[in-house]
Amino acid sequence: MEVQWVLVVHGVVTAMVVLSFLCGQWPIFRGTFIEKINYFITFGAYDYFLRFVAVICGSRARDAILTIEHYCCDRPNPILQMLYLAIIGITYFFVIKSSFRYFPGYYVSEFHKYASMLAVGVGVLLFLLTSFSDPGTVKADNVPQYLAAYPYDEVIYSEKECSTCKIPKPARSKHCGICGRCVARFDHHCGWMNNCIGEKNTRYFMAFLLWHFLLCLYGTIILGLIVVGQMKERRIVYILTVYYGVENSYSGLFPHVVQWLLGSHNTQVLLIVFLFLVTLLLAGFFAYHTHLCMTNTTTNETFKWQDYISWKKKINEAKASAAALKASLQSMNGEGKAIKHSKWRAFFRKSPLQYEEEVIKNNIYDQGIIKNLLEILFPLSERSSFHHQKYT
Ligand SMILES: [Zn+2]
Ligand SMILES: [Zn+2]
Questions:
Q1: What pTM was computed for the model?
Q2: Would you kindly state where each structural domain of the chain is located, as residue ranges?
């Protein structure tokens, strides 16, 4: 019994940590301990670690760690690319080692041996394609075309020059500090790809996300079918109920089946859990980016819009409080009777805060779902019209 409690506590703690890590910054968790755990994992723990190193090993050791961090996070480097290849390689190795001998099985045919190889191969190819493709580098020779293709909206983009590249900055572009170049329709710099995601390779990036989501889902399902097929072939339920006298019900069989699974198929169970979690993560990530593609917004622009909206709201608040102050001054100057009336009137009147202008996000680049998706699939810079454009 005690072991089961340890497992339950372990499960709850793991779920909490994962939830805090992934969703801790969501507004609904503001001020809760979920947000605090998120802060600790994403920032606090590293800060404590640096202070700890400084106290124990001196400030030189701390500076060494900061140098390593600078190399890993602020400079182009293949560490995460290697990690991706290691993760997919090791996972597939364990799949081959633990499961290929069950092909063909009760529910799965030998076809999946080859299908899985092909699926993993395509996944790696998409990874390489995204990593080594041009994200849409803006250079002196193509900047006039980019300036013409992406007009300034004068809200989040206005005419500017890149202080590093010394060329005008087209709307929607951003200078990537890690790669040291300006990228058109900049989405984000992806550490896993060691490349920027921009105008020309967002399509490969999306294909990568979708393919890996499907790949993990495929793995989860096939491994699940192998395990369930083994249960059928070995007549586990029959043996448990007839030979061991276990009650033939879900609640009666469940602990014994779990015990059998962990005893004879532990690698597959671990792989199923791992692949399932990655499937969920990728589904969320793909859904988020699909939403961005459909509304023709980049990740970079979501931050810009957030800043713009919170700045606008602050201005509105200032306007509203100025109006409230004016109203209260006016009522103080009025006669006693007038005050009585105005109090009642004020009660039924809208408060000055309700006069706030609605802050609207007017995204001029959003041209409807179909055109937006076509812009991802066929980047503007690869269309023939692009080369005839002149910026005026
Ligand atoms: Zn630049
Ligand atoms: Zn970059």
A1: 0.80
A2: 1-74, 313-362
